Every structure is written in C-alpha cells, then in structure tokens.
Here is the input.
Amino acid sequence: MSKRTRGDTGFRIGYLVHDVSRLRQAFFTEHMRPHGVTHAQWWALGQLIRHDPQGGLTQAELARALDLGKVATGAMIARLEAAGLVERRADAADRRLNRVFVTARGSRVVERMVSVAQGLNAALLHGMAREDLEATLRVLTELRRRLRSTLDEA
Here is the structure.
C-alpha cells in the first residue's frame, strides 16, 4: 500500500469538496434558521422543487432523493406538513400512493432559500476569474458523472 502524502490530489480533492460543502451548508442553515427551517427541511424542500416542481414526489421518491429511509422521510414529511410547507395528495393513477407537494407557504420559503443561495454564491465567487470558475464547474461535473457511473455499475 502506498503512503499518502500532503500533495496527493486524489486524497485532497475529496476532503476539499466535502469541507466546502459542509461549510456552505452550515452558512445556509444559519441563514435559514430565522425562517424556522432546519437543514433537513430545507434540503427536502429543495429536492421536491428540483426533482418535480409540478407533479410532486411520492414518499419513496423523496426518500431516494434525500438518501433516507422511508420511515425517516415520513417523519420529515409530517413535520413539513405541520409547518404548512408541504401537503400530501393522493396520486391520480394509484390511490395507494401519496404525492408530496410544496405549498404556497413552502414556495415562499423556497424563494428565500434561493435568495440566500444567490447572495452566498455572489459573495463566494466575487473576484474569482471566470476561467477558474468554468474549469471548476467542468471538473466537478465530470467527477459527479464518474461517481454516478461507478455507482450504477456497482
């Protein structure tokens, strides 16, 4: 087994991507707290909007998007529903299924989430060279593609 060194980019990129993501989430969570939305809740709202803004997601689909179990997702949905941020409606094709939809109040929270994210992005990216940002986007997009491909093959 080879010894890892501080200059090993294969090791550092995973650490840096994780650390940037963690710090960004901490910032975002802090700025959403005054709106009464926890990290898990804003993540669920974001996934609902991102994956199917009009048709809603089933609990199982949302669980997959959040990488959570169905029971934990059900509890999350119940809390979001109690806060008036989402609602469950019977699936038109299969009455045994419920679809989860973002409510008008939830949409206002999502608008605030977008505003916070835009402000954060503007502050983080200010003064960075366009070429550096484009290269970063290309590299991260390719890493994501490779990881998905590797997971799909497994």
